[in-house]
């Protein structure tokens, strides 16, 4: 029988890292505790990729920011990709436990109008772990044991980027003209910012974690870590999220436009 005694919550390291990062379980872009028990009102992320709910997301972004269609799409993507990637990168960095975010297992809704949208995970969402993880012996159906660190990173990339974010980029580009490099730059920046913000609750070197993750995703050339005002690592983007083009322009910290 599956052993849920010692490993009752496979995503516990992820929720702990999020709690440490934000100081609360009530996050603006993620379901409380990540997992969704009652799916009424939620839709799988496949409805964005197949285009059926993507116009709704883009309209919500246009109402929120009031910019050009491509700028609002880029900012909607920036928000979506940040909240989608964050549980994955924190799971890897905190405990080498990687939720595999197949689009059919990621749920979205637009009911809370504070964030652009809210994401949650189905309880059946698979989690990839190393053989040394206690989950590897738990016999849980959602646990996938991989051979080593390299295979864990490959599983992370295959689910997050290849199966989820890359097809969504294609869907967005069918609606709005916005460059792939611009969109992937937001993924790289979001990962780096997330790791740095969560640094106090993570083991090991945050800089090394960022380098490893961005290398595995082939995104390392899109951001650079530079010394901040007091010498701490800071993220410098090499692409722009287009927030500076809004009717009320915003220049983000680390923006390549400000540096140019």
What portion of the residues fall into strands of 2 or more residues?
5-15%
Largest sheet entry: 4 strands, mixed
In which range does the helix fraction lie? 40-55%
Our count of helices gives: 8
Q: What average pLDDT do the residues reach?
A: 88
Round the Cα radius of gyration to an integer and report it: 18 Å
Strand order of the largest sheet: 1-5-4-2
- Main structural class: alpha/beta
Strand tally is 9
State the separation between the terminal residues, measured CA to CA.
60 Å
Give unreliable regions as ranges.
1-7
Which overall shape is indicated by the principal axes computed on the Cα atoms?
globular
* Helix/strand order: HEEHHHEEEEEHHHEEH
How would you explain this protein's 3D organization?
With 260 residues, the protein is of the alpha/beta class. It is built from eight helices and nine strands. Helix content is 44%, strand content 13%. Strands 1-5-4-2 form a four-stranded mixed beta sheet. A three-stranded mixed beta sheet has the order 3-6-7. Strands 8-9 form a two-stranded antiparallel sheet. The longest helix is centred in the first third of the chain and has 27 residues. It is globular and about 50 Å long. The N and C termini lie far apart (60 Å). The N terminus is likely disordered.
């Amino acid at each position: 029988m599956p052993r849920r005694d010692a490993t009752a919550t496979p995503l516990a390291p992820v929720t702990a890292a999020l709690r440490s990062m934000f100081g609360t379980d009530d996050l603006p872009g993620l379901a409380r505790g990540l997992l969704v028990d009652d799916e009424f009102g939620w839709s799988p992320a496949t409805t964005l990729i197949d285009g059926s709910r993507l116009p709704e997301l883009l309209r919500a972004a246009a109402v929120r920011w009031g910019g050009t269609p491509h700028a609002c799409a880029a900012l909607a993507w920036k928000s979506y990709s940040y909240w989608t990637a964050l549980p994955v990168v924190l799971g890897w960095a905190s405990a080498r436990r990687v939720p595999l975010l197949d689009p059919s297992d990621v749920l979205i809704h637009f009911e809370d109008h504070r964030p652009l949208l809210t994401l949650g995970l189905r309880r059946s969402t698979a989690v990839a772990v190393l053989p040394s993880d206690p989950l590897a012996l738990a016999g849980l159906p959602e646990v996938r044991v991989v051979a080593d660190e390299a295979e864990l990173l490959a599983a992370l990339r295959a689910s997050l980027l290849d199966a989820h974010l890359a097809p969504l980029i294609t869907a967005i580009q069918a609606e709005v003209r916005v460059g792939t490099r611009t969109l992937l730059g937001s993924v790289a920046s979001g990962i780096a910012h997330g790791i740095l913000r969560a640094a106090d609750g993570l083991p090991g070197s945050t800089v090394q974690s960022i380098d490893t993750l961005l290398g595995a995703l082939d995104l390392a050339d899109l951001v650079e870590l530079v010394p901040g005002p007091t010498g701490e690592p800071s993220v410098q983007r090499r692409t722009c999220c287009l927030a500076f083009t809004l009717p009320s322009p915003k220049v983000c910290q680390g923006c390549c436009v400000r540096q140019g």
